[in-house]
Amino acid sequence: MRLAQMSVMVVEDHGFQRRMALRLLGELGVVRVFEAADGIAALDALERMDAPPDVVIVDLDMPGMDGIEFIGHVAQRKLARAVIVASALEAALLNTVQTMTRAYGLRVLGCVEKPLTALKLADTLALYDGNEVDAAAEDELHLDAAAIDEGLERDEFVPFFQPQVEIANGKVVSVEALARWRRSDGQVVRPAQFIGLVEREGRIDRLTDLLLEKACAWKRRWSKLGLELRISVNVSMLSLGQVEAADRYQQIVRSHGVDPRDVVLELTESAVMGEAAHALNVLARLRLKGFGLSIDDFGTGYSSLAQLSHIPFTELKVDSSFVTGAAQQPRKRAVVEASLDLARKLDLSVVAEGVETVEEWQMLAELGCGTAQGYLISRPVPGDQIADVVAHWRRPHSA
Ligand code: C2E
Ligand code: CA
Ligand code: CA
Hints:
This protein is of the alpha/beta class and 399 residues long. The protein contains 16 helices and 16 strands.
């Protein structure tokens, strides 16, 4: 979304800092700006607005109602579409607030350290995309099995692609396919809104096949443009319950003339693994056929160390929750380092996801991480934009 179309509210008790924020927003071309000097006044104003603002920038440390309590109210009453936390407080606390806000279902564009600058604000606001439906709008979608089937019927599910870059040389070597639901009204719905439902309704196999199919088709098109990219596709553990899956994926890939060696299947364990024996059967055979197998979201609840010992993984994806902010937060950095050590010992390649800043990129370069993926390089984009993204991406100077 362009800054000129965005509506932003600033909640800040300190008069000078509030005026500063408003001035910076003005300089950036944001014209629809609202302000409040404390949480209660802000909630009051938000309740009376016709539509929630796109972004609320909130100071955490305010007298009366503090920013944390304020965010809780905003999230529960769905009074804004996204927030930016502005604070001079320690990074570990900011991280907790960010995690809390997400858990409430509100989008956090970022935590911006004070003092605010035009650059910091612009970078963070740039992460907002009004077309992407966020949790606050979930209720309005009325998603159910019939809607999913209709979407499948109308061919509304498409992959967007996010580049993966080799840190050592800055080359885009691969792209991850991420499902998007392009609804007839033009809304682009993100997977958090529908994957769970698709899984529960037993349609996940169809979605996985479809994404693999379309990703292979795009790979062929890029190849004709002289762009050789490997592809990664997300596979729910639920899809591995039937032994036919291995043969089916092989057939899909082959029918597009794609070598399974150029395809990585990222395993997300968003639900309980169905039949464990079947899943291991499928995974072993996929590996035999040449597919790469990646353990996604490594380090989070579902992706346990135990899986590493019995599944023939070739790649480990360090979860973005450890990567984003790791340059400032020693605890996150320690988790990233430990993951890299483990991967080295198990001879797995590593992709760090959620790389948002040059500092994170540099830290990963120093730690010897192989591949990076994240907003620093590009957001997920439709297939016809990949060539452009690859052509324009410039590796930041590595320390
Ligand atoms: P994931 O596999 O961990 O994918 C990475 C998610 O992080 C994507 O969200 C991506 O847009 C987002 N992301 C990428 N770079 C950054 C960054 O620098 N900062 C931040 N904050 N986020 C970043 P997305 O596309 O909304 O997908 C969410 C999840 O939905 C995926 O997480 C994956 O688990 C699941 N998913 C997506 N497509 C499929 C699919 O086709 N099948 C299945 N089973 N699951 C899918
Ligand atoms: Ca993934
Ligand atoms: Ca992840």
